[in-house]
Amino acid sequence: MMTWSNLNFQNSASPLMEQIIFFHDHTLIILIMITILVGYIMSSLFLNKFNNRFLLENQLIELIWTIIPAITLIFIALPSLKLLYLLDELNNPLITLKTIGHQWYWSYEYSDFKNIEFDSYMIQQEDSQQKNFRLLDVDNHVIIPMNNQIRILITASDVIHSWTIPSLGVKVDANPGRLNQTSFFINRPGLFFGQCSEICGTNHSFMPIMIESISLKKFINWINNYSSLGDWK
User: Fold this and answer.
1) Distance (Å, rounded) from C-alpha 88 to C-alpha 77?
2) Residues 6+ away with beta carbon under 8 Å from 147
3) Preceding omega of 222 cis (within 30 degrees of 0)
4) 31-42 residue pLDDT tens
5) Where are the domains of the chain?
6) 208-221: per-residue pLDDT in tens?
7) Which residue ranges does the record assign to the Cytochrome oxidase subunit II copper A binding domain (predicted)?
8) What class does CATH assign to 95-230?
9) Which own/partner pairs from 214-220 qualify as long-range (CB within 8 Å, at least 24 positions apart)?
């Protein structure tokens, strides 16, 4: 999750988010090099007094300043396309999680298991006996096994929402009447937070997402005990 004075990305919890950060750094280096080069050329033009009254055309320099930007765009486009296809890749998911956006909460269904579905509401600070993450903590968070491919199906029941978890590199719109699909792979245990990233109404800021990543053995125990316990917490 984000903390004060953190200007960088959140620590990644999935291989795809790592690749997104690498691509960001790769593109940023290219942009810095272009900015320094253009800044140097502009400053040298302002500061020198060279003049060429007979310069009408120069096909060589026009060829150079056409080819170099094209090559630069290729260096940006190739990793971008590779990452774009990786984000849409789906490799033998272990479980499928269905997410339904409402005004203003989320509903979750574990489609591979019987009668496992619940609503997830934000916990208000004054209603809790302990200190929680303000505007991020929920009463029922999602349990996911780590080191396994997870497929998520996302839709909405009323208006457009957006299911977003930055540390996993996931951002998918939830549209009424449409079922969107994506997948993610969590490579470490922990709590991961997200929020709706689509302006969906008055309480848009108050429908957070909270995922708990646990081992596969603990996840199986949670599945087996869910019906008898009635609550996973």
Assistant:
1) 17
2) 185, 186, 187, 216
3) no
4) 999 999 999 999
5) 15-49+57-88, 95-230
6) 999 999 999 999 88
7) 92-225
8) mainly beta
9) 214/143, 214/144, 214/145, 214/146, 214/189, 215/145, 215/146, 215/189, 216/145, 216/146, 216/147, 216/148, 219/143, 219/144, 219/145
10-residue block means of pLDDT along the chain (233 residues)? Answer: 75 90 94 95 88 81 92 94 88 90 91 84 70 80 91 92 90 91 91 88 86 91 73 48
3-state secondary structure of 14: coil
Residue given tokens 């470490």 in the structure block: 188
Distance of CA 124 to the CA centre of its chain: 25
DSSP 139: S
Short-list 197, 203, 112, 194, CA closest to 153? 112
Q: What share of the chain is helix, strand, coil (3-state, %, to 5)?
A: 35, 25, 35
- In degrees, rounded to 5, the angle at the alpha carbon of residue 140 between the alpha carbons of residues 136 and 144 is 95
Q: What is the pTM of this model?
A: 0.81
Give residue-wise pLDDT tens across range 155-170.
Answer: 999 899 999 998 898 9
